[in-house]
Amino acid sequence: MKSNWRDKIRKIDPYVPGEQSKDPDIIKLNANENPYPPSPDVEAVLHQFPVHALRRYPDANSGNLRHALAQHFGVQENQIFMGNGSDDVLALCFQTFFCSEQPILFPDITYSFYPVWCDLFHIPYVRIPLTEEYRINPKDYQRINGGIILPNPNAPTGIGEGLEFVEALLRGNPDSVVIIDEAYIDFGGVSCVPLLDRYENLVIVQTMSKSRSLAGLRVGYAIASPELISALEAVKNSYNSYTMDMVTLDAATASVQDDAYFRKTCQQVIQTRERSVERFQSLGFTVMPSLTNFLLVTHPKRSAKELFENLKAQKIFVRYFNQPRIDNHLRVTIGTDDEMDKLFCALEVLFK
Q1: Are strands 286-287 and 294-298 parallel, antiparallel or unpaired?
Q2: Distance (Å, rounded) from C-alpha 257 to C-alpha 157?
Q3: Is the CB of residue 218 less than 8 Å from the CB of residue 207?
Q4: How many of the other CB atoms lie within 10 Å of CB of 25?
Q5: Distance between CA atoms of 305 and 26, rounded to whole angstroms?
Q6: CB burial class (10 A; 0-12, 13-18, 19+) of residue 310?
Q7: Distance separating alpha carbons of residues 245 and 127, to the nearest angstrom
Q8: CA 80 to CA 229: how far, in whole Å?
Q9: What are the b/e assignments for 282-299, b being 16+ CB within 10 Å?
Q10: Distance of alpha carbon 92 from alpha carbon 104, whole angstroms
Q11: CA 87 to chain CA centroid, nearest Å
Q12: pTM of the predicted model as reported, rounded to 2 decimal places
């Protein structure tokens, strides 16, 4: 007799991250990681951490880290929610705030995890096309919906918008929770944290993976009204009260407290990004304006897929998306000046 247990297993197309490699010679420009190490204060925490403390459960409320973030952003501690990376926070936001029968809205070109979560949690959704200039028009989101989520700056375009843009979204959707994913905000974008006092339906999600070089620790957080944070906490505590471990909590707190190092490395990435824009343009590439730690580029005479494969053969990893409207683009993470020079040398050879 044929077993039918396979029919009871959830089937879903998962999110696919940038390719990983253990080859130390790889120039890895495909995952939007920070090319610089974390704050020296983080290293000190890792060296000095009392291993015997691991026999205890960590602080489920992330008290010290919440306090540091609240001071950093000028908000109350009950406006901060902590999670195991911003993906964990976003997944909890989907489960907490997108519970109506109406579809949620997000751009057609955006973070590719959004539709995955919708399928996983059975949330209806509609993709709103970007404009011809690859921008988001707030007026396109003034329709009946069960919520809105979008990155600012957007990914993978890198294009960022100002506070007027976010306010237009919020004014046009007073009955929906609006989530702004600010994963790349520290590389030149304008955070909408100042709008929290005026809009109780606003949720801001950020990460320490990019600007604070802590991708390996998985630290994310949301900032919102105490009411929305309380709802998030209730959902989290319904399945896992201890989302962050002791080592991560201490290291992340040290990172937040070292503001000078944080600003210094962000500025280094920005300077290399602007220099890289000029190098790409000198080779004939069209470069989208970016406020992130990556660039989305395309060449009028060169196939992006072919360039991707040729660079990979030379152990230079960039990101290629085989999807409509950007299937002839490459997303290139900003590395160190030396890594970017090697990329451009390889491109110059290919073009010759």
Answers
A1: antiparallel
A2: 31
A3: no
A4: 6
A5: 19
A6: middle
A7: 36
A8: 7
A9: eeebebbebbbbbbbbbb
A10: 15
A11: 8
A12: 0.95
Nearest to 43 by CA among 217, 164, 275, 183: 217
Residues paired with residue 127 on neighbouring β-strands, in sequence order: 106
For the chain, 352 residues long, give each residue's pLDDT as a single digit of tens: 567 877 777 777 776 776 777 777 899 999 999 999 999 999 999 999 999 999 999 999 999 999 999 999 999 999 999 999 999 999 999 999 999 999 999 999 999 999 999 999 999 999 999 999 999 999 999 999 999 999 999 999 999 999 999 999 999 999 999 999 999 999 999 999 999 999 999 999 999 999 999 999 999 999 999 999 999 999 999 988 888 999 999 999 999 999 999 999 999 999 999 999 999 999 999 999 999 999 999 999 999 999 999 999 999 999 999 999 999 999 999 999 999 999 999 999 999 8
| Kind and range of the H or E run holding 48 | helix 40-48
- Residue 8: CB atoms within 10 Å: 6
Q: What length is written for the chain?
A: 352
Which candidate, 117, 91, 116, places its Cα nearest to that of 236? 91
Q: Which residue has the tokens 């494969």?
A: 309
**Helix count and strand count (H, E) for the chain:** 10, 13
- The letter for the amino acid at 215 is A
> Looking at this protein, which amino acid is placed at residue 176?
S
**Region of residue 194 (left: phi > 0; alpha: psi -120 to 50; beta: else):** alpha
For residue 217, give both structure tokens. Answer: 């620790």
Greatest distance between any 2 Cα atoms in the chain: 67
